[in-house]
Every structure is written in C-alpha cells, then in structure tokens.
Write a structure and sequence with these properties.
Elements: H1 2-30, H2 32-40, H3 45-59, H4 62-75, H5 80-93, H6 95-106, H7 111-125, H8 131-160, H9 163-171, H10 177-194, H11 197-209, H12 215-228, H13 231-237, H14 242-264, H15 266-278, H16 296-322, H17 326-336, H18 359-389, H19 393-425, H20 431-466, H21 473-498, H22 508-533, H23 539-568
Length: 571
C-alpha cells in the first residue's frame, strides 16, 4: 500500500513536471511577442478577455498568465481594469486543458505514443546552435510526460480504490449539504497543494468516472479548485506594489463571487450542465449510475464530459456576468488596498490601449505620455537630492534604492513609448508627423539617460559609503548649489514640453539654465583642484564629490537636449 501511495504521488509529480515543461517551452517559443501581445491587445473588455483566453490556451497555464498580468501591473504596463479583463479570459482559457485530458487522456492511451515523442524531443533538445529546436523539444517532452503522468495517475488511483477506501470516501458523500462543503474545501486544498488546477481536474475526473464520488460532489470540487487557483497569483503579488496586490485580490474576488452565486442555485446549475450533455445523446450525469453495466461506457463518458462542461460553463457565465462590472471591481479592490502616500503608481497613462485611428491623434497621446515621463524624471531627481543630503544610514539606503528603481522605470517607459511610436510609424504619416516622431524618440532617449544618471549617482554615493568617506558641510552646500541649477533646468524643460509644440516660441529658459549649470560646474571644478592642492579634504572623498558634480552636469546636458528636440519638431 505504501509503495502504491508513493507511486501515486510520483505520478502526480510527473504530471505536474510535464505540464511545467510544456508551459515553459510554449512560453519560450512564443517569446517576447507574447508579452507584447498582452500589453497591446487590451484596449477594451472584449479584447482583454480574448487575450486572456488566447494566451492561456497557448501556454496551457492560467497561473502563468495571471502571474504575467500581475507582473505587468507591477511594472505599470497594464492598468488594473485591463488586467481584470485578461484574468477573466484566462479563467475560460484554462478549461481547454481539461478538455484535452478528457478527449485524449481517457479516449486514447496516449502513453503508448509518449515514448516515441520523448525520443523525438530528446534529439531536438540536443541541438546546440538552434535554440528554437531545443524549446520545441522541451514542449514535446513536456507533452509526453504530461500524459505518461496522467496515465499512471489513473492506473494507480484505480488500484488504490479498494472496498475499504471506497467505503471511507463514500461516507463523506452522505452528509447532504455538508458533503458539498467538504468536497469544495478538498478542491481548494488540492489546488493549493499542487499549485495546479489541471492536477486537481485530473483527480476529479478519475474520482467521478470510477464512481468514488457522484457528479454533484465533483462539481463542488470544481468550485473549490476555482478558489484554490487564485492562491498562486496572491503569492506572486505579495512582493509587488499596491497595484499588483489589487490585481491578485480581484482574481480571488471574481472566482469567489462565482462560487457563491453557483452555490445559491446549485441544483439548478447542475441540471443545466446535465441538459447540455444530454443534447449530445449522453445520459444525464445527475442520475448516472455506474453499476448499470449495460450502459457503463456511455455513463462514464457522460460524467467525464460533464465535469469539463461544468468547469467551462462556470467560467464562461461568471465572466459574462462580471465583465460589465469591471469598474466596480476596481473600486472594491482599491478600497481593500488603498494607495499608500509614499507609493506612486508608475505606469503609462495615455497610450496603454495602442495607437488611435490617426497618426496625429496617436502622436498627441504620445506627447501627453512624454509629460508624464518628464514628471517621473523630476521625481527621480528629488531622490538624487535626498540621497546626497541624507544624514543617516536608513534614509541613505532608502533613497539610493529608489534611484535604482527609477532607473528601471525609465527604461520600461522608454521601451513602451518607443514600441507605441513604432506602431504609429507603420501607418501612413505626413512628413510633419514623421518629424515629430523623430523628435519624440530623441526626447525619450534623453529622459531614459536622466534615469541612468540618477542610478550612476547612487552608485557613486554607495562606493563613498563603503569606503567610509563623508562629505563635509561645505561639500554638501556646494552640491546643493549645483542641484538648484539642475532643478531650474528641470522646471524649464517641463514648462517647454507642456506647451504644444506649435506654440513653443523659444527655449531661452532652458538655454539660460544650461549656461548656469556649466558655470557652476566650472567654478566647483576649479575650487576642487585648489582644495586638493591645499589638502583641504581627503583626495578620495574629493574624487567622489567631483564625480557627482560631473554627473549632475551631464543631467543638464540631457535636459537641454529635450527642449531642443521639442523645438526641432517645428523645423
């Protein structure tokens, strides 16, 4: 018995490993295009749902889709409302795995074909030069192991179903409404333990087709599985920002609400499922009796397809009900996780839905995003000042970490805006629009460089800290003089990009600020040389000090380039 139990656990592990290989390989083959598709195909709820269905069908994992969505929200590349629509679609997409198991795992002995597939996959994975072949080999081996594990799971589970174990389990099926609650909880626990709704669905199929539990309790386990599958997303979001946590909890709310309303009409919902199955000439699963030997095969098929129908119908109907209430769901999860004062939502605000109908409208949206990008850079500069002036280790560490984070944010924002402009450029655009797009490319490149400068200053400060060097009060005072000049340049830049390019007359404010920065840099550099010659301060400390001065002057160069690029759009 112990050996059989270990064999059962090994079969489940093999099943999950095969599914993991299959999903991972599919994601590798799909590549970055999958993420780009997810980021762009989300302009309305219908597209969001279709995107969720499509991606989950491709990668065979609603958990992977949901975690991807959470990461996109965390990165600011999807807004919460868009993410909720994609998650609803993923709920529907995950039912495809169940149908694959039902059609191929029970109707055919796929394990017979699995070993030749492993051979093919192995040879493909030996390719040293072609990564795509290796990924396809991984998919084939994952597919084969998935069905070997499933076949072994079926065989071992049937051996373990003895009269004693059958009587024990069936004792739980005679408790009326409490039986429904118990098996719902079992569905949750199994899915949490396996971290895979597919594994739970496989077990449900085996239990119901072998007569261990009736269809009613299999349906209860399916409801539990839909709650349990939300746990992975919440774990992934636990280390994310508030927006990511909201996305994960919305996943839980959607499925929990669905379970609630189905339980309220449970007997009638099961009749609806039975009605669908009987349309195809199969027996009603609600009255099915596997002891009827004369009709056992048809009853087993009916129970199998009823489980898949229940799974699909629940997710489709729940999505159709809740898709109209996405704004309300957003409000609820926002109340659960309110925005923290110290946390800012870093995301694209204007172009997340893709290009508009005309290039001109799309470019105007891009310019709004540029203003947003400029404000993010200005906030980043505030952390530069705070890090330089930090008087205690805790504040210093917090501010330098923010500079690292902002460098990543500016990289992402540049990439997303550039991708948007690439799409706009594919259409028919005028020479004026082409000139504006060229100017915007220049602007986002310079803004990304501002993020790099902030990160560079953070690294200089960390090196100074690690070597035990400290800027004296005079050094900090002079650095603040330079910071003031750069801040004036930032304000001039923001003023210029906020003005419609057709109304921008000149950029003398930016030019004056740049001249002031250069003069301040020159003065501080001359003073630094004199101080080093006179041994006014430690040489190594002076190196860190003048490196920061130089980096601030570079920021001034990037800032003036932005105003010049804005002005150049008119030429």
């Amino acid at each position: 018995m112990i050996l059989q139990i270990l064999t059962l656990l090994g079969a489940v592990t093999l099943f999950l490993f095969g599914l993991s290989l299959l999903s991972g390989g599919l994601q590798k083959v799909a590549g970055d295009g999958l993420r780009s598709f997810l980021a762009s195909m989300t302009s309305n709820p219908f597209k969001q749902i279709i995107t969720g269905i499509g991606i989950t069908a491709i990668i065979q994992s609603s958990t992977a889709t949901t975690i991807m969505v959470v990461s996109f929200v965390n990165a600011g590349l999807l807004v919460l409302g868009q993410a909720i629509g994609v998650i609803m679609g993923a709920h529907i997409g995950t039912t495809i795995t169940s149908w694959i198991m039902a059609v191929f795992g029970f109707s055919f002995n796929m394990a017979n074909f699995a070993y030749p597939l492993i051979l093919v996959g192995f040879f493909l994975m030996q390719s040293k030069k072609n990564q795509k072949k290796k990924d396809i080999g991984e998919i084939i081996i994952g597919f084969a192991l998935f069905f070997i594990g499933f076949a072994q799971l079926r065989a071992t589970a049937q051996v373990l179903i003895t009269p004693e174990s059958l009587g024990f389990l069936q004792g739980w099926t005679q408790l009326g409404v409490w039986s429904i609650a118990i098996f719902l909880i079992i569905g949750i626990v199994l899915t949490v333990c396996f971290q895979s709704s597919a594994a739970t669905m496989a077990i449900i199929m085996i239990l119901v087709t072998t007569g261990v539990i009736p269809f009613k309790l299999a349906a209860a386990m399916i409801l539990g599985e839909n709650i349990g599958t939300t746990i992975a997303a919440n774990i992934a979001a636990s280390v994310g920002n508030t927006a990511a946590k909201r996305t994960a909890i919305s996943h839980t709310l959607i499925n929990t609400f669905g379970v609630f309303w189905v339980l309220c009409i449970f007997p009638w919902f099961l009749k609806i499922v039975g009605g669908f199955v009987t349309l195809f000439g199969l027996p009603d699963p609600n009255t099915a009796d596997l002891t009827d030997v004369s009709n056992a095969a048809a009853i087993q098929t009916s129970l199998l397809y009823s489980v898949c129908t229940m799974h699909t119908l629940f997710n489709v109907v729940n999505t159709l009900l809740l898709v109209w209430f996405i704004p309300q769901i957003v409000k609820i999860v926002t109340m659960i996780f309110p925005t923290k004062e110290e946390e800012e939502p870093f995301k694209l605000k204007y172009i997340s839905g893709g290009p508009l109908s005309t290039a001109e409208l799309s470019i105007n949206e891009a310019m709004q995003e540029i203003i947003n990008f400029g404000e993010v850079c200005y906030t980043d500069f505030g952390h530069v000042r705070a890090a330089i002036n930090a008087k205690d280790t805790e504040t210093f560490d917090a501010e330098t970490e923010k500079l690292v984070k902002y460098e990543e944010i500016t990289d992402r924002m540049e990439g997303e805006i550039a991708a948007f402009l690439n799409e706009v450029s594919k259409g028919e655009i005028s020479n004026a629009s082409a000139l504006r797009i060229k100017g915007i490319y220049k602007i986002i490149g310079e803004m990304e460089s501002l993020g790099d400068s902030g990160d560079a200053i953070s690294r200089i400060l960390k090196r100074r800290q690690s070597h035990g060097k400290v800027f004296d009060e005079d050094m900090v005072r002079k650095l603040n003089q330079m910071l003031d000049k750069v801040e004036d340049a930032f304000k001039a830049m923001l003023d210029n990009i906020r003005v419609p390019y057709t109304s921008l007359k000149d950029i003398s404010n930016a030019i004056n600020a740049e001249v002031s920065i250069n003069e301040c840099r020159n003065n501080l550099r001359e003073e630094h040389i004199n101080n080093i010659e006179n041994s006014e301060y430690n040489y190594q400390t002076g190196v860190y000090y003048i490196d920061i001065v130089s980096e601030l002057e570079k920021m001034g160069d990037f800032i003036i380039n932005i105003s010049e690029a804005q002005m150049a759009e008119k030429e």
